[in-house]
Structures are given as structure tokens and as C-alpha cells.
Amino acid sequence: MQRKTGQREAIKRAIREAERPVGPLEIRDLAEAYSPGVGIATIYRTVKSLLETGWLAPVEIPGGPTLYELAAKPHHHHFHCRECGKVFEVHGCAGHFQKMTPPGFQLEGHEVILRGLCDQCSAKSKVPQAS
Amino acid sequence: MQRKTGQREAIKRAIREAERPVGPLEIRDLAEAYSPGVGIATIYRTVKSLLETGWLAPVEIPGGPTLYELAAKPHHHHFHCRECGKVFEVHGCAGHFQKMTPPGFQLEGHEVILRGLCDQCSAKSKVPQAS
DNA sequence: GGCAAATTGATAAGCCGTTATCAGGTGCGG
DNA sequence: CCGCACCTGATAACGGCTTATCAATTTGCC
Description:
Two copies of one chain form a homodimer. In chain A, 36% of the residues lie in helices and 22% in strands. The first copy, chain A, is α+β, with helices and mostly antiparallel strands. Chain A folds into two domains: 6-70, Arc Repressor Mutant, subunit A, CATH 1.10.10.10; 77-126, Dna Ligase, domain 1 (2-Layer Sandwich). In chain A, helix 2 packs across helix 3. Chain A is flat and about 50 Å long. Strand 5 of chain A pairs antiparallel with strand 5 (106-117) of chain B. Chain A binds a DNA duplex through residues 1-8, 23-25, 37-42, 44-45, 48, 65-66.
């Protein structure tokens, strides 16, 4: 039987409050506030079980570890900042993907990844030395 | 000085003839026809130098090795078959990505990955036992 | 409280793509 | 056709992310 432990609650809370896709290491850092000393193995174990229950959804970004976000989100895509490496949610989906699909191919889904600078990194690069 | 070797020619020819993004292992298999016994280390070395010369471009697909394609191609995107795992080129780019970019973010590029079944796998799943 | 089973944390081990190493082979300028 | 610098192939080593192991701890039902 699945027990309710402080660690699991801390991990769920950390992911919920991140408000953007996060990886295992970042989850641990965030969960640290609610469950000090939580081990990385627990993060992986818990993430795995949360994926199985459908509470979490994986977000795969090339060149990095798999990130995770709440599964109960409407259709959206992601913005990958080349500076800080963080991934953000972007809303809307402007695309006509069926038109791009070659004849004979069955389109089942799509992924859009925008790349560039997030708001914070964009501001920093414009004003290298802050006030 | 960069020499002209049979292996390098074989690798370039293999990639040129693949007509879709290919990974190191697949490059080796294809190059095998033109340079039997070519080693995987040579593939990696050659790919690296071809990237530096701008002849090749990397194609990063989540959950797999980096693929490579000829750099001299017009803007396009990719279709990832969930059955055979191969990646195909798709032409056109129907999207309004600037509209999706959050305020303060700087959009520099985008990636679109369509997922589903390629023509061959699609045909197979419809007719499991061929004629 | 008490106990069995689930959970945890530290760490070893595994996995996979990639790179380094090095002895032997080879293109090419002279 | 010589010789050396470059290239090659086999394989070991590497780096990162993830999973397995296991003793110690904790949860939840009685």
C-alpha cells in the first residue's frame, strides 16, 4: 500500500510550486525546503510513481535530463532559454501540423520548442551591470 | 593538413545518401558499404570535423543520440516515428511562433517535432501480415 | 505502543553515448 | 619511393543520468 510520507508531499509541493518543468536535481533542491536531506533516489522513485499515476508528465528537452510538469495542464509548448537553461511554458499553439505531414504518415502529436532568452536573461544581457 | 581518406569519403557519401537525419551507428552501417570495417571512433571524429566545417548540422531528438543531416538544407522540421524510431524531414513551417512568445522573452529559433507513424510503419500496422 | 511492510538515504552499480589512448597503417609532399 | 605527420580501429575510459542494493527508519493498522 502506498503510504503518505513527508518526502512525497514535499516533492509534490515542490513540483507544484515550480510552475515550470523541472528536473530531478532541481526538484530535490526545491523539496529541500519542505523535507531537508531528501535523497536523490527518493526523488527518482517518487517521480516514477507519480508518472505512473498520471499526476506528472515528462518533458523531454534535447541535451538535458528529462523534466517533469503537472500532467493536468492544457495543451501548451515550451521555451528553452539558452542562457540559464530553464524551460518555460508557453501558451497557445499556432501551427498547421497536419499540412506538414507527408502523405502516408500518421500524425499523432507534435512538440514545439522555442529557443532564445527568457525575460530575466534577456534583461541581464541588455544591462550587464544592474543598478 | 586534412587528408582525403576513403573513410571520410565513405562517411560523407553515406550521410548524403541517407536523405534523413542519421546517428553515428547508422552512419557506420551505411558507410560500411563503401569502407568495410570502418570504426565507430572514426565516425565520431569525422562527424565532429564535418560539424566544424559547417557541412553537417546536428538534429537533437529527445531520448536518442544526436542525429546529423546536411547543413545545406532550407528551413524544415522533423517527423519522429514512434515505431521504427527514424526521423524524417518535413517541409514547410506553419507556425506563428512570435505570437506564442511571452512578453520579455527573446525568440531566436524554434524546433517542431511531429510524432506518429511513418509511411512504412503505418502500412505495416494496418496490414500486419504482408502478401 | 507494537509490529510488519513500505519507505528512505547513501552509495554502488548500470547504462549509453561519446571521447581518449595508442599501436599500426596510410596519404601525400618532396 | 621515402618518410613523417596524419589517420584509423579497437578498446578502455569517461561523464551524466538513472536504477539497484541494503541497512536503518517510519508509517499505518491492530
